Amino acid sequence: MSRRDQLLSLACLLSLSEWTLCLEAPETRGLCVSQYEERNGAWLSMSGAMSVYVQANHRPEWYWQEVFERRGLPDRGVLGDEDSRVDRLSGEAQGQILGCGVHGGRYWEIQMYYQRLYDLAPKSMRTKILKAFAESSGANRPRSGEELPPSMRVTLCIPAECDKPMIRETIIPRFFAPKHVGLEPYEAKDALQNALDVNELADWSDINIDFVIGGVFFCGTTSLHRNLDKHPELAFSSPEEDYFITAQMAHRLLPLKSDVAAFNQQLEAAKDAKAQATGHRPHLVGIRNPMIFHLPLARHKIARITKAKMILILCDPLGRLEKAFMFHLYCFQGNLAEAKQQGLASNFTFLGSPRDDTCFDSASVLLTERDGELKSFWQHAEVAVHVPNLAQLFRGRMMVVHQEQLRRIPKNVFASLAHFLKVSPELIPSSTRHNSIGGHRTDLCHNMTLVRALHRRLQREYDMQAQLMKTDKVTVSRLRTTRCSEIDQAKATFCPNAECA
Ligand SMILES: *[C@@H]1O[C@H](CO)[C@@H](O)[C@H](O)[C@H]1NC(C)=O
Ligand SMILES: *[C@@H]1O[C@H](CO)[C@@H](O)[C@H](O)[C@H]1NC(C)=O
């Protein structure tokens, strides 16, 4: 026990001190505090990574410049695109949490609610809070509590001996409160505790996902999911799309340990449910979220789950564009409400759609508004631009299938998938289609001039597919033709939101 701790214990014994330290078992507290104190510089050097990311375009450029400068992260002249930004920030976060663990620490996220602290603190201490905030953040001194930021988040590597109550009641008051909020450990204790959130962080690879159907939306991800789900050795987190990564964890560079535990429990429950239903406990569990492929942060997170394999399904770019148009932008000759009922039109707005209530009478706007009103729609529909990045992130653990292969040679495709996932190929299920709408969906295929012009605009997408298929040894015969040349209205499938008969 250090001399300081001896004095503290004595003070506690004599009830001379009001410190919350006195409430804890002195041995454990002693170990936590002495470990922290003895190697303070080391713990701090493994602290401070960003744990939550704000989308680049929600912040001005100077903000990012400062973020990267302060972190001493490699400056590549220009800050680079979203991918490189996300890569560096999540790389830093990942590096710190791993380093922290290796050196006997655990990684924590501390959120300090400045305004709440200011409001709860005794009046006599408020000036100190404003002053300390200005000094520790380098900002101008706020004139009132309202000028304080509502909250601030920091990450800290802290010795593994320290648990959550010790961090809240000892580490923060003793080592951080004096500098950052101007309060001595015995001052405004209740206010500080009420203005503090402390949560342990986890590493993405703590998430027990084995595989991901990560795209491409409007290319048959639902069919692929339903068919793979028939395999007794595979389970899915949910019968529907899984939003854990893209919504619940949308802005996180590191997940909270509690969220990871809850999600892993859900994955185990999915396996249990399948075991109940089939009498065979699946050994792999996956998720389907067809948006992951085009979200830089989401695909980085999945890539950090080192065992997770990525499955991507592609389809005819023009057919896909038409489907997206039909689903989100087509007026259906004034029968939009009916089309929504039938599941032909979406009840939700597509990310890139111009406005909530806009619809168009003809698919020709895809061409005429390509760089106008539908510019953002086209951008959100792009696939090719994301594929090189995915291929790099998931080198050796990504499989791309084409919807056309799945229709022509389903057995071969599922055998390849089984091989890729390392499950028994002899248990390949029969394949069915879901949510398929054949025949004329919009007026597109009635106008071959338009079809050819759009086809040219999608050249990059066709080229990317040809490139991929070349390396994959599997050929897709129809790659360069479009669905319009093969429409057989009499035999067309029609099963929106359902399994086709
Ligand atoms: C849209 O909502 C209607 C009515 O609630 C429903 O019948 C229809 O299936 C929904 N469409 C889709 C595509 O989910
Ligand atoms: C077919 O599409 C082209 C290109 O968008 C357009 O100029 C032409 O008017 C369309 N033809 C008909 C009959 O709609």
UniProtKB/TrEMBL annotation:
InterPro entries reported in the protein's UniProt record: P-loop_NTPase
Note the Gene3D superfamilies from the entry. Answer: P-loop containing nucleotide triphosphate hydrolases (3.40.50.300)
Which SUPFAM superfamilies does the UniProt entry name for this protein? Answer: P-loop containing nucleoside triphosphate hydrolases (SSF52540)
Q: Where is the signal peptide?
A: 1-22
Q: Which UniProt keywords apply?
A: Signal
Q: What is this protein called?
A: Sulfotransferase
At the highest ranks, the source species' classification is: Eukaryota, Sar, Alveolata, Dinophyceae, Suessiales
